[in-house]
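Why do we bother with a discrete structure alphabet at all? Because it lets us treat a fold like text: something you can write down, compare, and reason about line by line. To make this less abstract, here is a complete entry for Neuronal membrane glycoprotein M6-b. Read it the way you would read a sentence in a foreign language you are learning: slowly, and without expecting to understand everything at once.
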Amino acid sequence: MGCFECCIKCLGGVPYASLVATILCFSGVALFCGCGHVALAGTVTILENHFSKVTSDHAMLTDVIQLMQYVIYGIASFFFLYGIILLAEGFYTTSAVKELHSEFKTTICGRCISGMFVFLTYILGVAWLGVFGFSAVPVFLFYNMWSTCAAMRSPIANFTNIDSICVDVRQYGIIPWNATPGKACGSTLGDICNTNDFYMSYHLYIVACAGAGATVIALLIYMMATTYNFAVLKFKSREDCCTKF
């Protein structure tokens, strides 16, 4: 067998579904964690400078954001390891690999581990659907503020009193109702929308939301791949039982 034939045969043993899912998962998690971390820091800066001048008013929110940033570190580390494990599991359970190694035998432990990956990936997929929905909330809030500012700057807008146009973040439950000033109106609101913190945070939240969506898609691909791998292991175990008699 020549070198070319060996290469083709080895490439046939690559679990392409798991490989694509791993690349998509790494990219999605990296975008979500990196952009989300920076966007959260920018959100705190915007609140402190424009909506809540008293530190005690947003102390709880600051603690929650810091906790979320630490959780982001844990998510990034976990999915880096989990993606590698699923990719390795895909390599060792793909049918093409078993054709290359005729002595491959399945065990009860191997089938249990494969089944565990199917269950865990399903749970993570459902959890990330929630994360994807949650990550859309700050995008919605920032979009409302941005659209209000865009309406004020529009040449076709006809406002008799621009100071009557306000954005009150207290109504979203981000800060308490006794926070001062709690809202921004007119030219003050326009100045906030023109700040670099607002521009960066808004677009970073959009990218983080897109990263969460990419991670959901990656987990769906993982679910299909791990389910297929588990089915192959079950079929192989029955084949081994039949050959014993």
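What the structure line is telling us, in plain words: The first strand starts at residue 166 and ends at 168. Strands lie at 166-168, 183-185.
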